[in-house]
Amino acid sequence: MRENLIKFLVFITSIGLIAWILITQNASLPIWAIATGILVNIVSSPIYFGIVEGLYSLKHLGLFWKTKFRYRNQEVRLSISYLFRIKVKGKYLLVKNRKNNYYQLVGGAYKTLPGVETVFKKFNVKPDRRFLTDNGIAKNDLRFTLPGKNVISIIKWFHSREDREISQWREFCEELLTPAFVDKHIFRYIDYKYATTLQTPVKKAKKLDCQEILIFEIFDLVPDTDQLHALEALCDSGDTEYVKWADPILIDKLGFDERTKEIEYEIGAHTKWAITERWTDD
């Protein structure tokens, strides 16, 4: 608040000094021309920033309104993750969620890196208490709460890729290689390509008394020949308690099979969003 007040006072004072020079002084003299140039730069910087913010806000008008006004001083929860689409024989590889009884694409929350403390302090970021581990609050996950007025700024920070995990290898390794669902030698390296980013609107969080935004970066695995054969073999071996292969029809209904009229198993809504590349209120 104090910083914003100082910026405002500098902006207003600069405008006043420009007016004073133009009205009372000979602005063509070098000293006043230099002074005017400096003051104009001071004034034009926030105006330029405001124009950029305005253009961004037009594209994200709903987000701007809810975070800057409606929920400005309320806590908003953010969860930022990545997901792998691994498709073989028309089906997608799903794994059991480690905390809940449903299945999802391989992936998980991004992690922060040392240095993020300065950014989090600036935007008053607090740890997320929804997901607890054996040792307490899950540390370093990009799941947190912050005042609504800072949401747009923290999303921009995420897209800057500074002080946070930028590789998607960790969750692939933890969910497929560590439990030996696939051969770690064959998958000692992987290729994958970026597909899209999904961001939900500001909405009421499930089981929490706050608003939330979920962000998912979606990637497609690009297997080599050996990796494709290994995945095909895994698919042919059938479903297990921890690994499922689901076609788009089953995923679209979140585990309800219209063909058999039965619920095969629960599928997380974010898996459907990742496959269809569209958020729906499921």
The beta-strand count equals 14
- Listing every helix as H and every strand as E from the N terminus to the C terminus, the arrangement reads HHHEEEEHEEEEHHEEEHEHEEH
Q: What general form does the structure show?
A: elongated
Distance between the termini: 39 Å
Oligomer: single chain
Number of helices: 9
Helix content: 40-55%
* Structural domain count: 2
CATH hierarchy class name of the largest domain: Alpha Beta
Low-pLDDT parts are none
Assigned CATH architecture of the largest domain = Alpha-Beta Complex
* Radius of gyration, taken over Cα atoms and rounded to an integer in Å: 25 Å
Percent range for β-strand residues: 15-25%
Give the mean pLDDT: 88
Structural class: alpha+beta
The major sheet is characterized as: 10 strands, mixed
Q: What is the CATH fold-level name of the largest domain?
A: Nucleoside Triphosphate Pyrophosphohydrolase
Characterization of this structure:
- This protein is an alpha+beta fold and 282 residues long.
- It has 2 domains: 2-59, no CATH class; 75-276, Alpha-Beta Complex (Nucleoside Triphosphate Pyrophosphohydrolase), CATH 3.90.79.
- It has 9 helices and 14 strands.
- The protein has helices at 2-24, 30-59, 61-70, 116-122, 151-160, 169-177, 225-236, 248-252, 269-276, and strands at 75-85, 87-88, 91-96, 103-109, 126-127, 132-133, 136-137, 143-147, 192-199, 203-204, 211-221, 243-246, 256-257, 262-263.
- The strands form 3 sheets. Strands 1, 2, 3, 4, 5, 8, 9, 10, 11 and 12 form a 10-stranded mixed sheet that branches. A two-stranded antiparallel ribbon has the order 6-7. A two-stranded antiparallel sheet has the order 13-14.
- Helix 1 (2-24) crosses helix 2 and helix 2 (30-59) crosses helix 3 (61-70).
- The protein starts with a helix and ends in a 6-residue tail after the last helix.
- The mean pLDDT is 88.
